[in-house]
Amino acid sequence: MIAVFRREGLWPPVVPSVVVAESTTGRQRDDAGINRFLETCDIVEEVPRHLARRAGNLRALARRGSAVDAIVIALAEPGGTVLTGDIGDLEALASQAEGVHVHRV
Questions:
Q1: Which residues is 43 bridged to in the sheet?
Q2: Are the C-beta atoms of 72 and 16 separated by less than 8 Å?
Q3: Phi, psi at residue 57, to the nearest 5°?
């Protein structure tokens, strides 16, 4: 899948740093795979105020989803794609966003 993304110019993915907090445990053995993946990503270290406000707006409109999920969707606007193993809340948030698509991996 990564080879296809690279060929299509869709690599590296952009990942907000709050996703690192949500997806890691601090246990080296448990985090090894995610850490290898994150090393290939562009990590967004700060969430600008306008993006945080948009995430809050998306949560209010969708009536579900965590702040982290909403930030991921807001960062993907407009017209981005979010890849996830858990699509429920992300799809609800994306339905309120501008052209964001969510796909299960």
A1: 15
A2: yes
A3: -65, -45
